[in-house]
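The aim of this short unit is practical: by the end, you should be able to scan a pair of folded records and say something sensible about each. We start with the first protein, listed as its amino acid sequence and then its structure tokens.
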Amino acid sequence: MKLQHMTAFLVAVSIVIFGYTLLGRSALPGYWSLQTKKFNLEEKVASLETEVLEQRKKVNLLLNKTTHSKSYLEQIARNEYGFIGKKESLLLLQ
């Protein structure tokens, strides 16, 4: 009879330890939380890599002397800085 009680006690203790290990703060919930953070960070990295590629394209356009790069520079000068062309006039209406 004592052997059965001892076996039952050890099984119960093992179940409690296993449950605590599995469901404790740093076990499965912590793992799931880290998986979610990893997924979010991977999305952010992909977004930033896309932004880096776009910025590199802009830098290449600004450094090159092609007709496309000249039109890109002109577009930036007009849109961002309000410049006008050599043969253009600025008309202000009030």
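Turning to the second protein, read its sequence before its tokens, just as you did above.
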Amino acid sequence: MRLWSLHPKYLDSKGLVAVWREALLAKNVLEGKTKGYKNHPQLHRFKKTKNPVNAINQYLAEIYFEAVRRNYDFNKQKINWDFGKNELTVTKGQLIYEAKHLLNKLQSRDVIKFDEIKIISVYENHPLFNVVEGDTEKWEITKRNLF
């Protein structure tokens, strides 16, 4: 499961569809509708909030908005639109790690998207997250040799 801290505009079509599906799975986990993935590291930051389901709905909303911008047909009814505003934090180090991770994926999967975003020096975060100083998040399972 990869719930990107990066803004979804950087994802290629496969990445956007994947994060939509994975965030819906996360929503099911947070709602107690599935037994699997309960302790997945990517869910840690959502579980720390007062209302994790509220936060994942806000996360999904931004994925949905990006899908609409691209004329994709994601099911709007999968989101509870009554969510309140949430603000989670993400470290600068995590955003840098995720950007490198995404670039590695795009280099082999979508060269056009890779060329489009490889020149960016500072990547925008998903609007749910407020960026704070720090290294890669403790919950991240890192892979060495990213660029």
